[in-house]
Amino acid sequence: MGKSIPQYLRQLDIRKCVVSLATGAGAIYLIYKAIRECIKCQPPLCSNSPVCIARECPGPGERALPQEAPVPEASDVGEPKGLAIERERHGRDSGELRRLLNSLECKHDEYAKSMILHSITRCVYLLEAEASACTTDDIMLVGSMLDDEDNSVKIQALNSLKAFSGIRKFRLKIQEHTIKVLELISTIWDTELHIAGLRLLNNLPLPDYVHPQLRRVMPALMEILQSDCILAQVQAVRLLSYLAQKNDLLYDILNCQVHPNFLNLFQSTQPGSLLFEVLVFAERLSEGRNASHYRAVKWHYNEQSLHEALFGNESRLADRLLALVIHPEEDVQIQACKVIVSLQCPPNLGVRPSCQASHSYFKIGE
């Protein structure tokens, strides 16, 4: 044990082996065995991996284990336990998620914390029983990582909270981080952070007390929607579609300033996934502005507002919608027709002939 490769080669006296064998195959095999034995004697190279970190970092009231090669634990039938997910399948707690959460309390560099959080996310998705056995203190521990200075740690913390949000009993506790998540999205221009934060928000019911903060971050959400990252755009427009159904936020959305080329989002060259979500957003805005309680107030919009881009007198939205009626994807076609119907026949007007009024966006011939 502890010998280097050259020492093993000298011990085996390879030159004598080569002479004594009929072919060189035996010598090659001996060299292979020597190298393999030497590699086995080397210390493990995974000391920075999340699993190793979790094993090395003792939990509360535990002592650190000596650095020895782990011995596979035997099951009831005398076989190694195997993967954590296999152990859970047979009703046994692997303890892997708990070790990772305990290790997160130790002091690590940014890379180690990021990797531990990434492993926690995977465990939450794969080890359902162990994830459900976690506590709200664990959620607060993960949420505290949102205050880390490193963006990669913030991103992994957002992903972990998203994973935990799939467990109903943790949603209220995760909601407490909503304002912090909105702050991160609006103050840090990082595409991966935007995607992670928006995915989390889209998986949570947003309480009314965050509406003032939502008003403040509305310009940032609109900028993300008009960015060049499809994943971030899809997540942003999904959140905006949800908020468009809130009566006290509808005007803030419609009066939000957009770029002059905003209608490019409705071009048929856009990915179908984005087109569909943008069309859903337009339909909900159209329905909201045609609601009786909204029409009862005389609203004023700035010239560069979303309202003017979509519903203003100079808007070319009708042309874009007609082009999408023949889009290759059926979902896009159907949604484009729904937007056209919502513009032609507001559902709250009741009298169908009024759809032929002069306020129609489309000529009768079209």
Structure description:
The chain has helices at residues 5-12, 14-20, 25-41, 50-56, 84-89, 96-104, 110-126, 128-132, 136-144, 151-164, 171-175, 178-187, 191-202, 211-225, 230-243, 247-254, 272-289, 292-295, 306-311, 317-324, 330-344. By secondary structure, it is mainly alpha-helical. The protein starts with a helix and ends in a 22-residue tail after the last helix.
What does the oligomeric state look like here? Answer: single chain
Number of strands: 0
Please state the overall shape, judged from the principal axes of the Cα atoms.
elongated
The chain-level mean pLDDT equals 81
Question: Key terms for this structure?
Answer:
single chain; 366 residues; mainly alpha; 21 helices; 58% helix; elongated
Task: Give a summary of the structure in a few sentences.
The protein has 366 residues and is mostly helical.
List the helices and strands and how they pair.
Elements: H1 5-12, H2 14-20, H3 25-41, H4 50-56, H5 84-89, H6 96-104, H7 110-126, H8 128-132, H9 136-144, H10 151-164, H11 171-175, H12 178-187, H13 191-202, H14 211-225, H15 230-243, H16 247-254, H17 272-289, H18 292-295, H19 306-311, H20 317-324, H21 330-344
Helix pairs in contact: 1-3, 2-3, 4-6, 4-7, 6-7, 7-10, 9-10, 10-13, 12-13, 12-14, 13-15, 14-15, 14-16, 15-17, 17-21, 20-21
